[in-house]
Amino acid sequence: MAQARCACGQLAVDVTGEPVLNALCHCDDCRRHTGSAFGWQAYFLEAQVGEPNGRSAARTVPVFEPQVRHFCPDCGTTLWWTAGTAPGLIGIAGGGFEAGVLGEPIASYRDGQRCVWLDLPENWTRYPD
After folding, report:
1. Are 20 and 66 in contact (CB under 8 A)?
2. CB-based contacts of 98: which residues, under 8 Å, 6+ apart?
3. Of the candidates 28, 36, 25, 26, which has an alpha carbon nearest to the alpha carbon of residue 91?
4. Residue 85 — pLDDT band, cuts 50, 70, 90?
């Protein structure tokens, strides 16, 4: 079992097993949402994700038909989400896990939008757009 936590530690969610997908995304939404050069997400089957521990809030945003983001109301960390384009899966922020728990991502989504200065391992699967 592994646990993802928000920045202040008030909110956590436990997962079992390996993620279905461990990847980076370089789309405009992920970059703006994270305030970084990419978003790092691990997708798990709904059955692999436990009930949240702590208080959470949620907002629906009109991306990915739509996406419901669950976040800590104290520190604002988005910890998990569901998206209409990924039924049956729950995305969890890769940075919410302790270092080394998820292992190396295996794919780069929206790779055509990746910052030109960001090099990634050659063996990763790349999805241009």
Report:
1. no
2. 2, 3
3. 25
4. confident
Cα separation of 37 and 56, whole Å?
Answer: 26
Identity of the residue numbered 90:
I
**DSSP conformation letters of 60-102:** EESSSSSEEEEE-TTT--EEEEEETTSTTEEEEEGGGBPTTSS
Phi, psi for residue 72 in degrees, rounded to 5 = -80, 125
Q: Is the pLDDT of residue 122 over 80?
A: yes
What the block records as the tokens of 47 is 């059955």
Write the single-letter amino acid at 66.
Answer: P
Order the strands of the 107-109 sheet from edge to edge: 57-61, 67-71, 78-83, 89-93, 39-45, 21-25, 107-109, 125-127
Tokens encoding 31: 């970059």
Question: For residue 26, what are its two tokens?
Answer: 């370089």
Report the predicted TM-score, pTM, of the whole model to 2 decimal places: 0.92
